[in-house]
């Protein structure tokens, strides 16, 4: 019985000592670590995580809010031109500019730190990189403490792709969708639109009876242009009167045989009542009854003037 | 000389018009057209409703022309020989034959008035064809001529019972078909109701001076008018275009709503029809004191000389009057004048 009890007791004793001793040491010899005052850190990083090339500048804005007993230590701010090292190797990300602004609100000191980093490295393949973490110190109320601003990861792209690239083996979600260039279709579309526009203009010109200006292609406008070119002989006179009859027919939508008929269909011609009557007298004299009276002395000139008056009325003039 | 003669005759013509217009009120245009037909030596068919004054008008004109006058009523049992002779038993108890309406005045027959012509049988129309076209008739083994005769006929389109459609060949013999409508003026309508002067037709017709025109000189003066009044090449072309348009209106771009214009006309105006139109247009120019025909002269007689000659597709025949008017209106509006 004694043989069995002795070793067991030893073992139990050693176990109790082993379990109890650390906490007992801690409670007696080490005071608990003093808690740092809270610092609210807000970081605004670049929107894009990929596609940076050598020489590009990345900006991040860090906002630090701390109780107003504590102030930032200016000597702890990152120094422009400095380049963080990792395992004693430069990473190629250099602080380009640093600017701090300070404000006070609701019993807090608010520090806004604008940091710009420039990329000074490149690679023939996409390369991971990071804006380095920064350590900012605060002092006050008899305390000195520091906070860590977290690093931010991004990828540096090569300036040129070397060799053939198999896209199917490089389906990185960070790359984003590959876009097909629409420049050529756009050029074709714009050219087609230009041709369509010119064609429509041409069609408009044809439908406008070859007249560039509104009402330029009206029956009397065309008639006036034609009459000016006619010869001053009997044939020219007959042609001029025929053309005018045709113009009245087109304008009134039917053959007309008297001034009253024209004024009934087209009241705009009322100011020309006398001239219209003379025109029909002249027409009667030339085509049907040479004994007709009261015809103009110089029928060619009169017809030209009459045609112009008709054209003016057609264009809305009185 | 001929100018003065024409001027004198125009005065007579206008006097006839004036007197007839006082008897038959509100029918100035119809009276002008009948006067035109008289001097163009063309037969006239009046068309209109019952009681609008067709018969009174023709009787008044007839009285003004003078000469022999005969009248016959169209009935369903009228036969051609009824126009030529009568048979009867005389006082002596023996059968006698006397000349019928066509023969009773011999060559002096000036007006043959056929009332209600569409009630007569086609056989009678057939006899009229020759009489109207040639002014001759064979009867009693000899040829009878009626050199001064004009046929005035009337019909109403309202009644269809016991009537016969006048064949197109017979219609073509008439120079004009003149529609007679009730005057639209309220004053005239009131007069026709309340003025007792218009209630006694016989005394009304008697107000027209008899024999204003010398019926036996009308052929001569008509020829003189046709020779005196000129038609220039431009007007001839215009008339030709009008004629062609009646034959093929689609070619002239004429359109009538609800009508297949290519199927509408089976036969347009005949050469005789267009010739009659030009005769009437010349007379119209003369009545207006002109020595040359104008397009307006053609327009004045175009509807009345052409409409009844058009032969339409049977599917449009029921709307004949309205379609003919619309078609001819469109032709006048579409065909260019010069």
Automatic annotation (TrEMBL), chain A:
It comes from Methylobacillus rhizosphaerae. This is MxaA protein. Residues 1-26 form the signal peptide. Keywords: Membrane, Signal, Transmembrane, Transmembrane helix. The chain crosses the membrane at residues 187-207. The lineage of its organism: Bacteria, Pseudomonadati, Pseudomonadota, Betaproteobacteria, Nitrosomonadales.
UniProtKB/TrEMBL annotation, chain B:
Residues 267-318 form the ChlI/MoxR AAA lid domain. One of its GO terms (molecular function) is ATP hydrolysis activity. It holds the Pfam family AAA_3. SUPFAM superfamilies: P-loop containing nucleoside triphosphate hydrolases. Residues 43-176 form the ATPase AAA-3 domain. InterPro entries: ATPase_AAA-3, CbbQ/NirQ/NorQ/GpvN, ChlI/MoxR_AAA_lid, ClpA/B, P-loop_NTPase. This is MoxR-like ATPase.
């Amino acid at each position: 019985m004694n043989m069995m009890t002795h070793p067991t007791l030893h073992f139990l004793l050693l176990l109790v000592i082993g379990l109890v001793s650390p906490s007992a040491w801690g409670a007696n010899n080490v005071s608990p670590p003093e808690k740092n005052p809270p610092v609210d850190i807000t970081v605004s990083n670049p929107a894009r995580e990929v596609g940076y090339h050598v020489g590009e500048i990345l900006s991040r804005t860090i906002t630090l809010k701390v109780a107003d007993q504590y102030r930032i230590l200016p000597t702890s701010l990152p120094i422009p031109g400095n380049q963080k090292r990792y395992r004693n190797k430069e990473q190629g990300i250099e602080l380009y500019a640093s600017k701090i602004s300070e404000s006070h609100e609701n019993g807090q000191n608010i520090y806004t730190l604008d940091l710009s980093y420039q990329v000074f490295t490149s690679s023939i393949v996409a390369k991971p990189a990071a804006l380095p973490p920064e350590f900012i110190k605060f002092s006050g109320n008899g305390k000195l403490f520091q906070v860590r601003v977290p690093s931010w990861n991004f990828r540096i792209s090569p300036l040129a792709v070397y060799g053939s690239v198999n896209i199917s083996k490089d389906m990185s979600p960070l790359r984003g969708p590959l876009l097909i260039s629409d420049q050529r279709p756009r050029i074709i579309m714009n050219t087609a639109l230009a041709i369509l526009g010119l064609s429509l203009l041409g069609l408009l010109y044809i439908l406008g009876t070859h007249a560039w200006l509104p009402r330029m292609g009206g029956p009397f406008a065309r008639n006036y242009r034609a009459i000016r070119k006619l010869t001053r002989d009997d044939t020219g006179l007959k042609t001029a009167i025929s053309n005018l009859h045709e113009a009245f027919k087109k304008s009134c939508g039917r053959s007309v045989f008297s001034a009253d008929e024209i004024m009934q269909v087209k009241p705009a011609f009322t100011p020309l009542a006398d001239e219209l009557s003379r025109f029909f007298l002249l027409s009667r004299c030339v085509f049907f009854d040479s004994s007709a009276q009261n015809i103009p002395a110089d029928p060619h000139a009169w017809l030209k003037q009459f045609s112009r008056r008709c054209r003016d009325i057609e264009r809305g003039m009185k | 000389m001929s100018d003065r003669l024409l001027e004198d005759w125009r005065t007579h013509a206008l006097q006839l018009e004036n007197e007839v217009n006082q008897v038959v009120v509100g029918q100035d245009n119809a009276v002008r057209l009948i006067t035109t037909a008289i001097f163009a030596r063309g037969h006239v068919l009046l068309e209109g409703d019952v009681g609008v004054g067709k018969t009174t008008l023709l009787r008044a004109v007839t009285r003004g022309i003078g000469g022999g006058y005969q009248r016959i009523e169209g009935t369903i049992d009228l036969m051609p020989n009824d126009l030529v002779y009568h048979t009867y038993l005389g006082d002596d108890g023996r059968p006698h034959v006397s000349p019928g309406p066509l023969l009773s005045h011999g060559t002096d027959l000036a007006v043959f008035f056929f009332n209600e012509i569409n009630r007569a049988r086609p056989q009678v129309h057939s006899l009229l064809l020759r009489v109207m076209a040639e002014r001759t008739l064979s009867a009693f083994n000899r040829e009878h001529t009626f050199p001064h005769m004009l046929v005035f006929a009337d019909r109403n389109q309202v009644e269809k019972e016991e009537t016969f459609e006048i064949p197109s060949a017979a219609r073509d013999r008439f120079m004009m078909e003149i529609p007679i409508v009730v005057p639209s003026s309220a004053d005239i309508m009131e007069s026709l109701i309340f003025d007792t002067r218009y209630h006694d037709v016989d005394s009304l017709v008697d107000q027209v001076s008899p024999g204003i025109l010398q019926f036996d000189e009308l052929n001569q003066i008509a020829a003189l008018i046709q020779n005196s009044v000129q038609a220039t090449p431009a007007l001839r072309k215009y008339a030709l275009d009008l004629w062609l348009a009646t034959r093929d209106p689609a070619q002239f771009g004429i359109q009538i709503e609800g009508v297949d214009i290519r199927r509408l006309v089976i036969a347009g105006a005949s050469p005789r029809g267009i010739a009659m139109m030009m005769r009437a247009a010349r007379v119209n120019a003369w009545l207006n004191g002109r020595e040359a025909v104008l397009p307006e002269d053609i327009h004045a007689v175009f509807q009345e000389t052409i409409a009844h000659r058009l032969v339409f597709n049977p599917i449009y025949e029921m709307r004949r009057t309205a379609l003919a008017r619309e078609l001819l209106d469109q032709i006048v509006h579409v065909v260019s004048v010069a």
